[in-house]
Amino acid sequence: MFWMVAAMVTTAGLFRHRVSFPKTGTKTKGSFSTIIPARNEEDNLKRLLPTLAESGEVIVVDDNSEDETAEVAERSGARVIRAPELPEGWMGKSWACHNGAKEASGETLIFLDADTWMEEEGTERIVRYVEDHDSLITVHPYHVMKSFPEKLSAVFHSVVYASTGITALGTKKGSSLGGFGPCLALPASLYRNLGGHEAIRGEVTEHLAFSRKAAEQGIPVKAFSGRGVLSMRMYPASFRAVTAGWAKSFASGAASASPWMTIWNVAWISSVFSFLARIPDIGWPSVIGYTFLSGWLARFWKDIGNFHIGDALLFPVHFLFFISLFTYSLASTFLLKQTTWKGRVIT
């Protein structure tokens, strides 16, 4: 019974706050630029760029693509910049963002991954929030999934959200201890004052590091889900693609999480696994715990992706996949000392 109660308490405590993007106006006050680092992203750009067609300056930084990334961007009306050769000590994405920011003219900058798309008036809502609060924000796109392997991302997303500190009991709603990688938005003046991407050029989880740097200087840092604002389909509908994608940097990101949130996450995962292992001993009262966990996870997961109650009822499967892949990612990152992404080895 102890582990059942522990699993219920840690789940409810760690995912106390809802994370949806706040309601904002859609009329912006100043100019803004959207900067998209792109390496072999021709298919994703065909989906993203039409959602930005009437949304300020759009800059696509072609990071030595081997496909028609640049051509697709040009046909869509975006300004294309070809990133120079990657210097020693830089991560590819940060180098692309750095070169795009140098050319941007907007008063607000949005750094956006190519495998996302804006919902109607999503760009304007993000810019308006930055303008109203003069802060740095990161947005985790709402995850649109079309297959069961993609749904196995549930616990990974949960840990990512929890690691920022925006979900837990005892934290201020929206206030972040870290940040999300797919979307970073902030005033251009603040970006330059912080040293831009050059200040975090060697970081794998670049926008988490950038958010931490801002927070250390007393700058308001917020993080939200992109539900109704920004969406994504992270990986193709295959188990292999989902595995490779999450293995990219998850262990590195977990290692850089705050000690307090790491303790929260470890306590949560450990208590849930301990409860599941003891269900035969607990007997029928375990139905109470299982139902509570399924319901609470369904409540949280629906804010971050098109998860349904059936996905939450299968949460033991999600946890098993998480532990297996997290162990592999740790081995790749800390024993093999390398992870591969889009044809590059990142360390």
From TrEMBL:
Belongs to the glycosyltransferase 2 family. CrtQ subfamily. CDD domains: Glyco_tranf_GTA_type. It is found in: Cell membrane. SUPFAM superfamilies: Nucleotide-diphospho-sugar transferases (SSF53448). It comes from Salimicrobium halophilum. It comes from the Bacteria. One of its GO terms (cellular component) is plasma membrane. This is 4,4'-diaponeurosporenoate glycosyltransferase. Keywords: Carotenoid biosynthesis, Cell membrane, Glycosyltransferase, Membrane, Transferase, Transmembrane, Transmembrane helix. The chain crosses the membrane at residues 313-336. GO terms for molecular function: glycosyltransferase activity. GO terms for biological process: carotenoid biosynthetic process. The keyword Cell membrane applies. Residues 33-149 form the Glycosyltransferase 2-like domain. Signal peptide: none annotated. Catalyzes the glycosylation of 4,4'-diaponeurosporenoate, i.e. the esterification of glucose at the C1'' position with the carboxyl group of 4,4'-diaponeurosporenic acid, to form glycosyl-4,4'-diaponeurosporenoate. This is a step in the biosynthesis of staphyloxanthin, an orange pigment present in most staphylococci strains. The keyword Thylakoid does not apply.
